[in-house]
Amino acid sequence: MRRKQEIVSRTEHSVVLHDVRRVYGRGSNAVTALDGISIAFARGTFTAIMGPSGSGKSTFLHCAAGLDRPTSGSVTIDDQPLAELNERRLTELRRERIGFVFQSFNLLPALTVWQNVCLPQELDGRRPQRAAVRAVLDRVGLGDRHKNRPGELSGGQQQRVAIARALVARPAVIFADEPTGALDTQTAADVLELLREPVRSQGQTVVMVTHDPVAASYADQVVFLADGVLAGSLTAPTAEQVADRMTHLGARSKLSMAVAR
Amino acid sequence: MMRLAVRTLRFRKGGFIATFVAVVFGTAIVMACGGLMETGIRSNVEPSRLAGAPIVVTGKQSHLRPGAEDATPLPERVGVPASLVAKIRSVEGVSAAIGDLTFPAIAPDVAEGHNWSSARLAPYRLTSGHAPADGQVVTGPGHRPGDRVTFLINGEPAHLVVSGVAAGPAGHAFFSDRDAAQLAGRPGRFADIGVLVASGTDIDAVKDRLQALDANITVSTGVDRGTAEHPGTEAQRTALIAIAGSFGGIATMTMMFVVASTLALSAQHREREFALLRGIGTTPGQVRRMILGESLLVSIPAVLLGCVPGIFLGRFLFDQLGSHGVASPVVEFSQGPIPFAAGAGAAVLAAIGAALIAARKSAKIRPLEALMEASLQRKWFSWVRLLFGLLFLGGGLALLIVTATVMSGPLAGATAGPSVLCWAIGVALLGPFWTKAVLLVLRWPVQALTGVNGRLAILNVSARSVAMSAAAMPVMLAVGISTANLYMQTTQVHAASEAFTRDLRADAVLVSPAGLSLKLLDQVRSVPGVASASAFVRSTGVIDEPRNAPFDEEGAPLLGVNAQGHDGTAPVRLTGGSLTGLTGSTVALPDYVASKIGRRIGSEITMTLGDGTAVKLRVVATFAAERGYETIILPAELVAAHTTDGLTKQILVRSDPGTDVRPALTKLAAAHPGVQVADRDALVASNIEDLQTQAWINYMLVGMLIAYTAVSVVNTLVSTTLRRRREFALQRLTGSTRTQVLRMLTTESTLIALTGILLGTLVALACLLPYAATVSTTALPTGPLWIYLVIITTATLLTFTSTLLPATTTLRHSPTQPTHTD
């Protein structure tokens, strides 16, 4: 059974979570953020994770990306189970196979755009491939700003640099945590297009946490989270569908809280 | 990682300025101390009057007490027996050996007199006139043959005729050999012997053969010959080495602490950056290497820059020590490559050590923890920290107990000094705990006094008690270290002068640097109204037998006074026997010493005096003395005869009750050139001046330490304030006016300053109370209050300016303006 799953994942899935639980704190203060989640993200897909505040979507992303270790259950990236890696190996795996785009504070203020994009490769002890870096920067429309420092760029531009940095290493999967959270509608649309484009053209896998139905509508599928468990999904969603589902989730969440009382 | 470190540094110069400054200071101070130490160890005195003799033979300026491990330096010139001259002449390779006599002979431009035959050793050359016959003298240019010159020799004026003028080192006059032998007053001994060899002789071989002649002589060549001209340098040399060593050690420790705190602070303030680096795939090892790389990049140029003031600081300190009589001014300052290496090495090691400490935590955190922790309060508690904190506090407590129970008198400083460092570091490590404790106490009065802003400030510092403690700890360190060290000095000086004046019964004192003759003493005694008068001479000696005398290898202070009755001037309270029989080979001992060595009145002890002469002495009296300030009392003639210059420089006078003898004494002094009359206060003052000299060095060194900790205070506060830009902007957006923000910061600064001062004062008291109890009669430290006021005012001002100035600059911008650098 297990063997079969591995074979399946090698061929189709970039990220596999199996019965992942994450509990913060101990004893009576314990808070269960994730309560047994199993899900697999296929190669070349763009998935949005949605849920009301406190539903555990950030924890989900951190566990899936190897930034946080689950209390129980397993996470596998590109066939490599994360649990058996020590801190250094885990970091190296993140460097090689995972790209990140955070909501804010994405770039090192001391480095120029070019240096920021090259950084993961340099950390890996590799010589940056100039042509690839230039191509990626052109693709995000910042080819002419590569000498600027992050402080001299707008929020949208900074986010595009972060995407360029995530793309240049050609990782197996890109995780994005509210990448459009701090951006206006038009800029957000540009950034989302940039995230979607490599999924189409290069078979990249992208997993994005968001609370914005419009942003979620750019994804191939939307997975809903509520109270630390999966609460259904939508394929080829529209913003209206997502918003509608979110409203229900919010209501259900409130209801369950009322019942608990 | 080095490239990343370089780029970060180039961008974040500001954050590293404090580290840079601290390393520059530290390098300079350690290097200066290294220079002082090297100077002390080498003790290079350029030979001048004996420069013409390739080899100089002197007596051994130290004495090994039987059964002791370390030799005691002898402060007075030991000299060599005249019979040695013939033996030296017969040594192979020696072409001539000339005995040199040296005695004080005071005249304008002249300080020392010598025998004419020793003039060859410089060599001096007659430019006019001829060699001196009896009653004649050869001087430097400034006189002409035929002039009459009056010299003050042994307190008596001597009139001589200039027979010739010689060119050579200044300050010396040459008498006929017979006159010189008589004036030098030490028959059968020379101060030193100059040895001449034929050119081309192997000097080292001759030196070895000379050394084989006698174990009690020192044979010097090259630059070592200089010490033969200035025998006192040996004792000063030990003092210099001790000062340089202890201060260098403290400076290195403080540098480590300051550099570690500045680096840790900058690492802590960049936690988000490290979090991001970890998030995008930087391994913990790479983060560690990056922090290490940054600190090396900062410290290496800082070390290079620090070498420049290091050279001057060492020389400056040495000049100051020289002019205050601590170091011998004739010694040449030498700062070779070793102090450079030591200063640079200590600074780089301090930076590396500090970086490793700073990097440990930043590298270990997982990226997510870092992302969260960056915005929350940083967890401060760790078992390692608690362990070290308790260890240091325990060390402080142990030293406190040792200071209070085991140590006696002036020695207490040896344990009290380190104890304050232990206390301070212990408190700093457990800072947040102490800060919270103090805040609990301060909370209510502040809230009551300052209203809304005060409440906000209290909320702020309570929520951020770790950050608050980080700000208050440097203040605590500065206040604690400076208060403890400065008041240790004043307490010590006060206690020592108390011990001196308590028993001082002189009403007036006659002083002359050229010496006071016995004849003058008789004249003083016959002045109407004078109850008694006594010479007063100081030196240092060693009790050889019995062997268990309670003095260390520095020897015992000797005091020479004349035989006297109960109305005498000797500064002692007799407990047995009397000083009427204090003549010839006799001694009076403090009770403690007498009981320790099991000697009573009538029994004998063996002592070695300051010039290395061994004497058997009969105990004639015992007296009470403050523990730690014991002095041995001998007949004045005995002490004076065994000093370098053989002079009595002070006469203590006690008057009949109700009479003022000073006018009569002043009249008497007027007839004797060079003699001055001073009252009791002047005597006390001159004693205090001696003590102040030692204290002065400590003031200077402590001052540098304080400046150093101030760097840390300013750095911590300025960078912490600048880091809170966003918070200030937010407050203003939510309706606080600029003034309100500033007022809140003022309250915060007040709390920080109060906490730091309170804790610092407690730390200082933990060291001062047992120290004062040991060195003096009360547990309360003595000293002017203004020192403490200056310390706390400076601490408060530093806290306020380094918080409010950067805050004002920050608040000048509009709150909506984004800050990119965060």
TrEMBL record, chain A:
It comes from Kribbella antiqua. PANTHER family: ABC TRANSPORTER RELATED (PTHR24220:SF685), IMPORT ATP-BINDING PROTEIN (PTHR24220). The keyword Glycoprotein does not apply. This is Putative ABC transport system ATP-binding protein. Keywords: ATP-binding, Nucleotide-binding, Transport. It comes from the Bacteria. The keyword Metal-binding does not apply. SUPFAM superfamilies: P-loop containing nucleoside triphosphate hydrolases (SSF52540). One of its GO terms (molecular function) is transmembrane transporter activity. One of its GO terms (cellular component) is membrane protein complex. Residues 15-252 form the ABC transporter domain.
TrEMBL record, chain B:
Its main location: membrane. InterPro entries: ABC3_permease_C, Macrolide_Exporter_MacB. One of its GO terms (molecular function) is transmembrane transporter activity. The chain crosses the membrane at residues 239-265, 296-318, 338-359, 380-403, 423-446, 466-488, 696-718, 751-773, 785-805. It is found in: Cell membrane. Belongs to the ABC-4 integral membrane protein family. This is Putative ABC transport system permease protein. It comes from Kribbella antiqua.
